[in-house]
Amino acid sequence: MVTMAAVTDRPSDAQVQAWLETVPDPEIPVVSLVDLGIVRGFAWDDDTLVVTVTPTYSGCPATAVIAIDVETTLLENGVEKVRVESQLSPAWTTDWISQEGRRKLHDYGIVPPVDGSACVGALKMTGAAAADIACPRCASKAVERISQFGSTPCKASYRCTDCLEPFDYFKSI
Amino acid sequence: MGVETIRKPADTRVAVKPAFDLALRMGDNALILAQRNAAWCGHAPALEEDIALANVALDLIGQAKLWLGYAGELEGEGRSADDLAFLRDGREFRNVLLVETPNGDFGQTTMRQWLYDSWHHFMLEGLKASSDERIVEIAEKSAKEVAYHLERSTDLVIRLGDGTDESHKRMQDALDYLWPFARELDVADDADRAIAAAGIGPDLASVAEKALAYRSEALSQATLTAPTDAVPRKGGKAGVHSEAFGFMLAEMQVLQRTHPGVKW
After folding, report:
1. Does B35 contact A at CB distance below 8 Å?
2. What is the tens place of the pLDDT at every residue in B130-167?
3. Chain centre distance of CA B48
4. Which InterPro entries does the entry link to (chain B) (predicted)?
5. Which chain B residues are within 8 Å of A55, Cβ to Cβ?
6. Which of A95, B20, B144, B199 has CB atoms 3.0–4.6 Å from B131's, for a disulfide?
7. CATH number of the domain within which B235 lies
8. Are residues A11 and A39 in the same domain?
9. Which ipTM was obtained for this model?
10. CB-nearest partner of A149 from B51, B138, B150
11. What is the DSSP track for B184-224?
């Protein structure tokens, strides 16, 4: 049974949401885990706040850090018991990155994934077209892909053929 | 020794044994290929390729963790993904021989990756229709990553195959050497047949057919020719591995074997 005291001590959902929105992504701290769609939801299991997160790339080394950061933030805000659970399905997609998250990524110099272009496992025989990817510095669409793999698992390396600057593209999955 | 001899588990999950076998095979393939690729870190011929190999390895390790974690749960003896990866002996691994072949030159590593990717992709497509929900979840998650692994390796096979005389020769040599190993993926053994019969995974012949069609188109663009008379080089699925595998495993497991129970 939940006691009256526990109920009054429990922060509101809006408050919990606000706390979660302050947790930055460990590798791209300009965006929050909520912006990226990594935090899937939260619920109370008796007196324990259970936060459900979803892995982005299977081998992303940030996954373990993310769970610790969520737990730490909530504990620091006075939540006494926190449990972070991982949910695999439906699989995370870059389509879940919020508009706010996309704007922050762009301002940071990382081109956000092109809307609705998430890969569902469709096959392409050779290099994908760079349709609709614009250089974050000069906005030129004359860009080329250097490599599908960049400084973190979520990014691909591109180059602008007008201003010649390299840049990161948050690749769609 | 066929499907009918699979013992019926006590609980309601009638397909525990086939699901365990499937998860172990998928997990071991991913883990061992990842370990091989990871050895390129700092040694690849170009920075982008170095990063790509390490990233592919990371994805595969992540996938191996999901598969082996599930295998451990199904086994029900309290073994974690780490226990299965680091505390089993060679004979207990169920990966195909292809993924444990030595790295060779960059062409051989690329060809090995492509042969696996082009099977892996179609295998995961088949696993998305598994009767086991957890396997569907892992397959859907992995398929997104494998799609870009395959895109990369196909691109490289075509560029290097249809490249200079030297790159063409190396890719053809790699194809001739590795093609018989890749065929182990296509040949079903008793466990594979039990997996298909239980609806846990696809019929390997149908996966092989799709992979072959895909590979044929890419190889023609790459101006490479697959051997037509290759006898499958197999044994890995039954735990009979190559000499090179023992050395690789010793390196992969040394930390956990030397310091039992060590935590990061």
Report:
1. no
2. 999 999 999 999 999 999 999 999 999 999 999 999 99
3. 23
4. Aromatic_CoA_ox/epox (IPR052703), Ferritin-like (IPR012347), Ferritin-like_SF (IPR009078), PaaA_PaaC (IPR007814), PaaC (IPR011882)
5. 62, 141
6. B199
7. 1.20.1260.10
8. yes
9. 0.83
10. B51
11. GGTS--HHHHHHHHTTSS--HHHHHHHHHHHHHHHHHHTT-
